[in-house]
Amino acid sequence: MTSDELKNILPELQETDVSSLGLEDMLCSAYIYDALYNLVSVNGLDMEYGDRKIYGGKIRQLFELLTGMYRDMESVLERGKILALTGYLIGNSMAVCNREFVDRHNVLADKFISENAGKLLSGSFGNDFESEKVVYFFVRVVLDYICFCREQYRELDVAVSELLDRWASTVEDDGKWDGVTAVQALCRIDLMRMYSALFLDFSREDKIRAAESAYRSQQYCDDIPDRARFCLEVRSVCDAVCGEIQQTVIEEN
Length: 253
Fold this sequence. Notes:
11 helices, 74% helix, single chain
């Protein structure tokens, strides 16, 4: 997707009734609107890419819809997906940077972690692909939540670190994992990179770089759902536009 192609679909994104979407589309849409909100608000591109008030409103609406749906969700996976998103948003989006949204997320995250921590500590989530998806979202929620109170969750922190060590130790010489899909690999890389960034722990850096290099060309592989692929493309264009603007500023100064 190019920046011009993105501009062509902005009217549709701006007019979408997010309350009519299913869970997966809501989650992807929130990441899309977050990327657009950051693009226009940081760079003052409202006239070119749309009013930040529209994107900010969509983010807040989705945040409220998803946290409202949370209690009706029965699976750890669905709940983990919601809290991974809301945790990401309160840490990265000015659209929901206020005490009301933070408290709403924290109340749910604290209970979610306490209810499921034992499964990670005992290894009872399982080892199949579906179980690893649950682990991915659970660990994302954990890392977002404990990053400012790490000492209070030492046992859980150690369990996450050991999990990432196991993944790092099984990276092959070509940077890939044997019997692991591209989606699984990208999830593992994401958690390893997230842990490194939050806790300045670069002990797995060589393995992370090798895996990133091996799977970079597979980011848009067949086993990534269409909506998720579209989300990645929009976010990639937003990142590229921001990068071009930053480079221009650097050159002019």
